[in-house]
Design goal:
There is one protein chain. With 126 residues, this protein is mainly alpha-helical. The protein has two domains: 72 residues; 41 residues, no CATH class. It contains four helices and no strands. It is elongated, with a radius of gyration of 23 Å. The protein starts with 16 loop residues before the first helix and ends in a 32-residue tail after the last helix.
Length: 126
């Protein structure tokens, strides 16, 4: 089964396993070999989501099933100028405790969220 059945192949698409599974299910729906209700159960989605995916597939082909958020930064990321402040605060207040990454207590100061995640790579000596 061609991943772009019924659509021209203009470009190479990168799809996650989940998106490939959705594509296969939507193609089976289009071929009348699977109902929307069965596809919803198979993919752990609602029938409404399956209908939305079918519309996206009809309009844009396989590209319609790929997340538009791919490659874009998270809406929940810290601002770039905030990260050094947080790292300085950790070193200033918690260095003596010799905590490993991810074990820092909740921090609140100058508008920094109370729960933060800092990778090991961010924790270099100041």
């Amino acid at each position: 089964m061609s991943p772009l059945k019924g659509h021209e192949m203009d470009e190479l698409l990168t799809m996650s396993n989940r998106e490939i599974n959705r594509l296969e299910a939507i193609q089976r729906i289009q071929d009348k070999r699977l109902t929307q209700k069965e596809a919803a159960r198979l993919l752990s989605l609602s029938v409404r989501q399956i209908k939305r995916l079918c519309r996206a597939y009809k309009a844009r082909g396989a590209k319609g099933l790929i997340s538009d958020r791919r490659g874009k930064p998270s809406n929940h990321r810290l601002q770039a100028e905030t990260i050094p402040k947080v790292i300085d605060l950790i070193y200033e207040r918690y260095r003596a405790a010799d905590l490993e990454c991810g074990q820092c207590p909740h921090l609140e100061f100058d508008g920094v969220p109370s729960v933060i995640k800092i990778s090991q790579g961010d924790l270099t000596s100041p």
